[in-house]
Write a structure and sequence with these properties.
Blueprint (H helix, E strand, L loop, with lengths): L2 H31 L4 E7 L5 E7 L11 H64 L17 H50 L5 H33 L5 E4 H18 L3 E6 L3 E4 L1 H17 L6 E9 L2 E8 L9 H4 L19 H11 L3 E6 L5 E6 L7
């Protein structure tokens, strides 16, 4: 059943009920009043004068006697008044019912018109929303008027469309960047294979060298695809929640990164204190690994990486700070987007600009606060503050 018809029925039923109650009250008040009969008597006073008394009601006061003829006349008048009252009440009931029926039909028509007037803005918004698609998601309802429920609804839909537009634009950029990142190694693979096929003087050593390059390119593709998969998984949400020791995961990541830190002559300072968080252990470990890898990869010779875990009130935190090239403060937010690098070309270091974007997605999936700050002396200071662990 359409909303307009339901509103019309609602308006009609409410009017019918209120009209019926009003008529019932009026009928009871009129019926309760009863017939009024006026009678008069005359009497002689001790001084010889005559007095006239008038009585209203259905009977005379006690002690008042009327002559037989006058009594019969009074009874006849009273009976006639009762019959007249009954006729008036019947006529009132019939005419009130007819009036109520007429007004009920009129109220149904008025209710239909009023419901249409009330629902007209909703119909306009529905038509506009149905017309909006991925091609014209930039359009808005832009409802004007006083700040009422319909205006709030339209503004909410406009806000939703704005977020949808931003998400679609981000999705389009992500697909374009991913296609570009995947096309580069594929082009390189094709060139290496083509060179091996058309080279008439190719030897086993040259084939071996080209195969080694192909393996390196294949490993880069595998890392890129793995990063894209993690990014998609973290943006989808959490499949499981477990109590995780953040300090233990951080210690495992630092031990695995030790050889690379020694190879780059980086000083790693760790202050790992117990910190429990609730979330997906695999995603949280990937968050820590990406932050440590980012701090080590984007550093300077003889640089430094500082990693700390602990609690702040009821919340646990992870902090990673590194030395490195200066980062313009206006570039910080861009580095959190996929495939964004700072003064680097694609694949020159095996990274694709997905590290911090994955960190941001994992932090958002865990409802954690991510703070990225550019250090004045160079490098970044990154802090992840997890929600408090609920105790049962």
């Amino acid at each position: 059943m359409r909303v307009r018809l339901r509103l019309t029925l609602l308006y009609g039923v409410l009017f019918l009920l209120s009209g019926a109650v009003l008529l019932a009250i009026t009928y009871l008040l009129v019926a309760h009043s009863g017939p009024n009969v006026a009678m008069s008597t005359t009497s002689t006073t001790p001084s010889g004068g005559r007095s006239v008394s008038i009585y209203l009601g259905e009977s005379l006061p006690g002690g008042v006697q009327l002559p037989e003829a006058e009594r019969r006349i009074a009874e006849a008048v009273r009976e006639q008044a009762v019959q007249q009252q009954a006729g008036i009440m019947h006529q009132l009931l019939v005419q009130s019912g007819v009036a109520l029926a007429i007004m009920s039909m009129l109220s149904a028509v008025l209710g239909w018109l009023v419901a249409g007037r009330v629902l007209r803005p909703l119909q306009t918004m529905t038509t506009s929303i149905q017309r909006i698609s991925a091609r014209n998601v930039h359009e808005r309802l832009a409802v004007t008027g006083p700040r009422d429920e319909l205006k709030n609804l339209a503004d909410t839909v406009d806000g939703l469309l704005g977020r949808l537009e931003a998400a679609l634009d981000s999705h389009k950029r992500f697909i374009a960047n991913a296609a570009h990142e995947l096309r580069t190694p594929l082009t390189l693979e094709h060139a290496l294979l083509e060179e091996a096929v058309i080279d008439p003087d190719a030897t086993a050593d040259s084939f071996r060298a080209q195969f080694e390059q192909l393996m390196a390119v294949s490993e880069q593709q595998a890392r890129l695809l793995g990063s894209l998969l993690v990014l998609a998984t973290s943006e989808r949400g959490l499949d499981r929640l477990e109590s995780v020791d953040l300090s233990g995961l951080t210690g495992d990541v630092l031990r695995a990164a030790g050889p690379e830190a020694r190879r780059q002559d980086l000083a790693v300072a760790a202050e790992v204190r117990p910190a429990r968080v609730t979330g997906d252990p695999a995603l949280i470990k990937r968050l820590v690994a990406n932050l440590v890898d980012n701090a080590m990869s984007h550093n300077v010779p003889d640089g430094r990486v500082e990693v700390a875990t602990g609690t702040e009130g009821a919340r646990s935190f992870l902090s990673v700070t590194n030395t490195g090239p200066p980062v313009p403060p206006e570039m910080v937010d861009q580095l959190l987007s996929p495939f964004q690098r700072l003064n680097r070309t694609a694949d020159d270091d095996g990274h694709h600009g997905l590290g911090l974007s994955i960190v941001q997605s994992i932090a958002a999936a865990h409802s954690a606060d991510l703070t990225v700050r550019a250090r004045p002396e160079g490098g970044l200071a990154i802090r992840v503050l997890f929600p408090a662990v609920e105790t049962k």
